[in-house]
Amino acid sequence: MPSTALDPVGVAGRRAAWDTVMTGFVPGLPALERVIGTVTEGLHGGPPTRVLDLGGGPGLLAERMAARWPGARVGLVDIDPVLLALARTALPGAVDVIDADLTAPAWTAAAGGGYDLVTAVMTVHYLDPAPIRTLYRAIRRVLAPGGLLVVADLMPDDHAPTVMRALDPVPGEATAELAWTQWWGELTAAAEFAPLLAARSEVFRDRPTAEFAGGPAWHAQAARAAGFAESGLLWRDGRHAALACRRT
């Protein structure tokens, strides 16, 4: 990844804008984060010791988990050079920022193991079904015994198709799409991001987004096939849902 010094003040503003955009797409994200914290502490009888956020982007969820659990070692994995640079600039020392490809086996070696909690929020829809199944098997290997995986994404309920269609699009989704386009457009206009954007184009040149939207039943089956002892719905907000998968 290019070595680019970014203005910390500007980075803070861009990360805050990113947070707003993502909440526009999934208004229930703050509630999901509270649920993740509550169930993790309930399962472990207190704070976790090691936490990993997959597809963690600019590190907002990782930062909030580090603040909630100051004694925990928190890490994030991503492949986007722009988002990794934002995370590294904003979170020096607070979060382990790992540049790794979740579709390549080497990411587990880079991340290490023994995690009490692994999260993947708005991450797996970028992948096709086969890589998701492979990813679940890899996540199980990096979890400690009793560890928890929380996968949150677009997961419409296949048993309620009419209801799901009534919830599509999410109110405010068009505004969020416009804000997303504007966020990236502003980066394009900033000279300091030019090397990072060039590197990003190279990374994603042959990586079309799958936009996979399997329902909770599909993800639960995939998690059980990967060896998770428990797998079930943890949270829902419209067409978005989160699955909790526990390793024995």
Give a brief description.
The longest helix has 18 residues. Helix 6 links the parallel strand 4 and strand 5.
Features:
10 helices, 248 residues, seven-stranded mixed β-sheet
Strand arrangement in the largest pleated sheet: 3-2-1-4-5-7-6
**Could you spell the SSE succession in H and E letters?**
HHEHEHEHEHEHHHHEE
Q: Low-confidence segments, ≥5 residues, pLDDT <50?
A: none
| Total strands | 7
SS summary, helix count? 10
Q: Indicate the structural class.
A: alpha/beta
Bin the strand percentage: 15-25%
**What profile does the largest beta sheet have?**
7 strands, mixed
Helix content: 40-55%
Oligomer state equals single chain
Any idea what the shape is?
Answer: globular
Query: What does the average pLDDT come to?
Result: 96
Termini Cα gap = 37 Å
Fold blueprint:
Layout: H1 8-25, H2 29-44, E1 50-54, H3 60-68, E2 73-78, H4 81-90, E3 96-99, H5 107-111, E4 115-121, H6 129-142, E5 143-154, H7 161-166, H8 173-188, H9 194-203, H10 216-225, E6 230-237, E7 240-246
What does this structure look like?
This protein has 248 residues and is an alpha/beta fold. It has ten helices and seven strands. It has helices at residues 8-25, 29-44, 60-68, 81-90, 107-111, 129-142, 161-166, 173-188, 194-203, 216-225, and strands at residues 50-54, 73-78, 96-99, 115-121, 143-154, 230-237, 240-246. Helix 1 runs antiparallel to helix 8. The model has no long low-confidence stretch (mean pLDDT 96).
